[in-house]
Request: fold
Amino acid sequence: MFPTLALVSLSFLAIAYGQQVGTLTAETHPKLSVSQCTAGGSCTTVQRSVVLDSNWRWLHDVGGSTNCYTGNTWDDSLCPDPTTCAANCALDGADYSGTYGITTSGNALSLKFVTQGPYSTNIGSRVYLLSEDDSTYEMFNLKNQEFTFDVDMSALPCGLNGALYFVEMDKDGGSGRFPTNKAGSKYGTGYCDTQCPHDIKFINGEANVLDWAGSSNDPNAGTGHYGTCCNEMDIWEANSMGAAVTPHVCTVQGQTRCEGTDCGDGDERYDGICDKDGCDFNSWRMGDQTFLGPGKTVDTSSKFTVVTQFITADNTTSGDLSEIRRLYVQNGKVIANSKTQIAGMDAYDSITDDFCNAQKTTFGDTNTFEQMGGLATMGDAFETGMVLVMSIWDDHEAKMLWLDSDYPTDADASAPGVSRGPCPTTSGDPTDVESQSPGATVIFSNIKTGPIGSTFTS
Reply:
């Protein structure tokens, strides 16, 4: 994700986060079937499930129902310090559909933006794919493989992001490395990404209460002393007006807690341990404003298939990742990715290190992607294993303008790389989006993995 995320939910009686396990609401993971394909194009359906991120869950005292976190403030008596808070507070189960607007049907996952629950109004959500055992995350290595899914984002306006991506989380959510984390992946713990987010309430099995400050523009969010970092592969960040595919890399392997300069906050953005900008391929930003959107070549007013291929240098699963290639399928037609139409750049249609270097030079952007190892580092993260994340969110920090409008807003919109989509720079304010588009929904379905060329029909 481009900005540091402030993902919000008013769950049950209060937004809450924790590491113990509560017993007031049963945790039942929604089932989701996915397909595993072979080189011959034969695909087998397997049963999996999704789990809600711990950041959305009700957090209360162990054995009781007193909130450990209310609004954007910790209870000082229950949470005087990180370790005491972890011992005192429990994450509870989730009412996925009633409270969070998360539903599944066969191979389809639907994420609703605003849900009026019995006790609360929930904003956005984030879920992870669990493995066959229903208690650990499914781990993906996509080197020399392709990943395919269908998406319906016709109901996602400017300012929203229906995202599908991979992050280098621990398979067990960190419970093995950090014994104070009793909830683990079964309750959606252990999140990390290249923005090194500080809004995660528990990191490394401890409450992020040190230096906690409530957000000035979000009554339910705040930031703590620590961030949580890891490699991130953004397969799909999109709304009906624009989309981007973006690898981000780090100098560390696996989920890593950061503090100070290592987090890359503010003016130290390019001094941290992760590449926050990434190397994005956004068709509009790369000069083709006719490719993706309502009524365009890839018509976002109806469902379509997104195919992402991870090519290695020697076409084996052990070779260095050298190219990320994108295809689309809609109405029975395979659609090649758009080509760059930027003065001074070759006509690239995929992500390679050469593309990334040319883009950074042409746009005048800092090239931390190359400095941190580029695509080879992304491939190394896949070898370690990455977790599938699907979410819907709005952006309290940058209004999603980095995805669908002109960004930064104080730059000349005609300068290469500044215009990223057709949305006005006045769009994306969370207050407006939440009040005007509460029914916004993204549907991800028909997820398939397999060797190159096995998951779709050409």
Q: What stands out?
A: The chain has one domain: 28-51+98-117+126-451.
